[in-house]
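Format notes (please read before filing issues)

Several people have asked whether sequences and structure tokens are stored in separate files. They are not. Every record keeps both together, in the order shown below: the sequence lines, then the token lines. Line labels are part of the format and must not be stripped during preprocessing.
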Amino acid sequence: MDLDGYGIGGLAVGEPAEVMYEIIEAIEPHMPKDKIRYLMGVGTPVNILEAVRRGVDLFDCVMPTRNARHGHAFTGEGVRNLLNAKYTLDTAPLDEQCECPVCRKFSRAYIHHLFKAGEMLAMRLTVMHNLYFYNHLLEKIRRALDEERFDSFYRENVEKLGRRI
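Then the structure lines:
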């Protein structure tokens, strides 16, 4: 069928990530090379890097918003759990390399306090940051692909994006 793109679904529903990657590798050679490949419901920053490496173009996922509502902020150095006590007095932004409005104006300690106080603003700020982070990550991936340096970008980022910090 001559469709605009092709979706891969039914993954990221509990199987190990490595199984998901194996299935993408098995399906990818059979998909048209000139059509968008859409991986439905995936995922973490590492999942995205791994899927792009295997030929996937497009993603959607609740991960950045759902995890933000539970205190998890994605950063260029890994994932921060803002509910952890170590952020009580931490005056640094969520991600020191991030230019989003949240990182420019609010500290880890302030957002930690908002979560502990049950303030909805904590979730809103963390969602804003995570969406900005994901958009920026995908821009960087696109630039690396366009400049034919995705392999080095992948190697520089895959381990640190999966860390819990």
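For reference, the curators noted about this record: The longest strand covers residues 36-40. The two ends are 46 Å apart (CA to CA).
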